[in-house]
Amino acid sequence: MSIGQNKLGFVVAGLLLGILVASIDNTIVSTAMATIVSDLGGLDKYVWVTSAYLVTEMAGMPIFGKLSDMYGRKRFFVLGISLFLIGSVLCGTAESITQLTIYRAIQGIGGGAMMPIAFAIVFDIFPAEKRGKMGGLFGAVFGTSSLFGPLAGAYLTEYINWRWIFYINVPIGLAALALIVVYYKESLTHSKQKIDWWGAATLVGAIICLMFALELGGEKFAWSSGQIIGLFAGFAVLLGIFLFVETKASEPIISFQMFRQRLFASSTGAGLFYGAAFITAALYIPMFVQGVFGGTAVSAGLTLLPMTLGSVFAAQLGGILVNKLPYRNVMTLSAVIFIIGIFLLSTITPETTRFLLSLYMFLTGFGIGFSFSVLGMSSIHGFDMRQRGSATSTMSFVRSLGMTVGITIFGIIQRNHFSNGMTDAFAGGEGSGQLTENARELLSPEKRAEIPPAVMDKIVAALSESVSATFMCSLVPAVLALVCVLFMGNAGMKDILNKQSVSPIAKKGA
Q1: How far is CA 237 from each of CA 56, 206, 212, 213, 243, rounded to the nearest angstrom?
Q2: Which helix (H) or strand (E) holds 485?
Q3: Phi-psi label, residue 190: left if phi above 0, alpha if psi -120 to 50, beta otherwise
Q4: What is the pLDDT of residue 26?
Q5: Helix 262-288 to helix 327-345 angle, to the nearest 10 degrees?
Q6: Are 70 and 390 contacting, i.e. CB atoms less than 8 angstroms apart?
Q7: Is 145 left (phi over 0), alpha (psi -120 to 50) or beta?
Q8: Deepest in the core among 175, 248, 300, 353, taking most CB within 10 A?
Q9: Is pLDDT above 90 for 296?
Q10: Inter-residue contact 53 to 112 (CB < 8 Å)
Q11: Helix, strand, coil percentages in the chain from 3-state DSSP, rounded to 5
């Protein structure tokens, strides 16, 4: 692949813009959902809007990653941006919650193509000595967008209009599309291969069953209901068929041969648990700040700034360190700091000062930041251009799965602790259940002013305890992430540098 040095900068800019819009989308939309539902109606279909995006994005990741290995990165990255932009425009024009759900599914297909392919392109076009720096840059963008999503969503919804959380994607996405189409020249020769349709179909079906089981369980249907048990059973059956089909396919969507490599398997496992633990901080810190300290959704979103700064700094630092140290050494430092940060967050109370909370958040962000860049590089390490798309898409898929499962599990934990705390605080008095159900509304600045101080103190104490207990539980996946990291071995970017195994761009002196 031959790309001039000047054109290379434009390609990187296009990839970064693509990652920005894709990674920020789901968090920014989640923040605005209450307003969207009040405008469009369809509260009973609230969950479908989020699920539609997650299902198509997660199902698309391994499929598009494999297709990019087979037929080239550019066409599928361009397809991903195009679908994402079409979906964004349609979402902004939605007149009903059903329309919005369908359009979000289109967006999700595009997002599933953009995220993993962008990282694979970086490894294709950059020589080994620059991959760490670029991985750090891409990781910083991913971490920043994931954490700033709630703030951006709250600001656009409160001061402009919720439709602009979708329209804002258009100029950024068009810029990314133009840069990639014009400046990214892919010269790899591709051979026609058989597409694993059975694997794709069973994977999509399994993910649909799992996502809707997690989204609907405990909300629309009881966990013990026939609907939820049926969805989990469908997931198990389809997953079993998928695993069987993949062992027989000549070109499987997810190659289990990759998992025989110790570094890939351990990196993917770490990504799963990092995702599950990280999502608690992104979700419950703003809830704690708004509910316990008071303030608007925008001001609560701003409190994520220390964690964002920590993650951005660590992502770039990780990209530098991997050129000198094994992946395991860098990620061990990451996991230990992350565990400390999560533990400190589990100690927060209404008496915790904002300075201490900011310090705890910075440590947590610093710990997670390394994973945004280093795990992406370690998961691709040792694979050639024909396998990198599949490897990086599998990592993205597993991390997203960890975050999705984490949202569900820790959401249940937080709600149960809060409900029990409210029941104890009000001794099961009349109205305590209603207070629990409407807690988010009651903790808005306007509603807080209407609540008697004695009642408000009990609500704040119950909410604070539920959040800290959730962080304590999230130490489990954080520790499991460390265990996976310890199995990564001594491989590192230095191995590639020592072998002088560089990409064609370096050979041409581009």
Answers
A1: 20, 8, 15, 14, 10
A2: helix 475-486
A3: beta
A4: 65
A5: 20
A6: no
A7: alpha
A8: 300
A9: no
A10: no
A11: 80, 0, 20
Residue with tokens 């703030």: 151
Residue 261 gets which letter from DSSP? S
The per-residue pLDDT for 159 is 82
The one-letter code for the residue type at 313 is F
CA distance 284 to 406: 12
DSSP string, 162-217: TTHHHHTHHHHHHHHHHHHHHH-------------HHHHHHHHHHHHHHHHHHHHB
347 three-class SS: coil
* DSSP sequence for 405-433: HHHHHHHHHHHHHHHHHHHHHTTT-TTHH
The whole model's pTM is what?
A: 0.79
The tokens for 147 are: 């954490």
Rounded to whole angstroms, the Cα distance separating 27 from 297 reads: 13
Query: Which residue in this structure is represented by tokens 């990086």?
Result: 392
pLDDT digits (tens, 9 = 90+) for 157-188: 778 888 998 998 899 999 999 988 888 887 65
* Cβ contact 100:94 at 8 Å: yes
Q: 496 versus 305: which is more confidently predicted?
A: 305
Say whether 221 sits in a helix, a strand or coil: strand
d(CA 184, CA 175): 13
Nearest CA to 317 among 482, 126, 133? Answer: 133
Per-residue tokens: 418: 């809060």
Sorted by sequence, the CB contacts under 8 Å of residue 438 that are 6+ apart come out as none
For residue 292, the 8-state DSSP code is I
Length in residues, the chain: 510
For residue 230 the two structure tokens come to 């049926």
Mark residue 316 as left, alpha or beta (left: phi above 0; alpha: psi -120 to 50; beta: remaining): alpha
Residue 221, beta-bridge partner list: 217
Which of 67, 52, 165 shows the shortest CA–CA distance to 109?
A: 52
Residues 395 and 375 sit within 8 Å (Cβ to Cβ): yes
The contacts of residue 99 (CB under 8 Å, 6+ apart) are 90
Token pair for residue 73? 């990165």
Name the CA radius of gyration of the chain, rounded. 23
Tokens representing 192?
A: 């026609």
d(CA 404, CA 46): 16
pLDDT of residue 157: 78
CA-CA-CA-CA torsion sign (218, 219, 224, 229)? negative
